[in-house]
UniProtKB/TrEMBL annotation:
The keyword Cytoplasm applies. Residues 9-150 form the Tetrapyrrole methylase domain. It comes from the Bacteria. InterPro entries: 4pyrrol_Mease, 4pyrrol_Methylase_sf, 4pyrrole_Mease_sub1, 4pyrrole_Mease_sub2, rRNA_ssu_MeTfrase_I, RsmI_HTH, SAM_MeTrfase_RsmI_CS. Residues 176-220 form the RsmI HTH domain. This is Uroporphyrin-III C/tetrapyrrole (Corrin/Porphyrin) methyltransferase. Keywords: Cytoplasm, Methyltransferase, rRNA processing, S-adenosyl-L-methionine, Transferase. PROSITE patterns: RSMI.
Amino acid sequence: MVPYHDHSAENVRQRLVERMAGESVALLSDAGTPLISDPGYKLVRDARAARRRITTLPGPSAAIAALTLSGLPTDRFLFMGFLPSKAKARGDTLDEVAAVRATLVFYESGPRLSESLSAMAAHLGDREAAVSREISKTFEETACGTLSELSARYADAPPKGEIVVTVGPPGEAPPASAEDADAALREALTRLSVSKAAGEVAKKLGLDRRTLYDRATELKG
């Protein structure tokens, strides 16, 4: 038995990955499903990078099992079910969750997989993702990469079986520029007073409201 938790050093994880080259390593938890809101995902991530074979004992649902296989953060996740089949509705659904700082979990079918992955890349950004299928069955497989890479992988070879797509959370957004602020203020001023426009843009871009109020006054003049 080797303890593995938030305070485990990086070299503990490295030693476990090295042991996987010739031994079976089981990650066990005394507090529910392993890897759900615990640091286990980093061990899976590094094991996948070292090309170790990973499998899971399924828990309550395929969504949870796929999360444990993905190597993506599990401290926050949002289950999205199946995306709409129509392109417009699918894009609208993805736009709604593009800024959610959580790993997203989708169910998908083989024939729609490549198209859905491409739509995710377009609306969410080309994030790290994983496609898990046939979990707990003979041909279980988890493929990792960016959304565009995975879309290309399955474009000409739609997979069979039950499929779960997990998509990593968005990266940190770059700070808004002065040009971004001016553009947002000009648009807001067509609808709102100077004060309300400054407040709306401050909340949207994370900038100082007083500075934006002064700039909105200049633009209004």
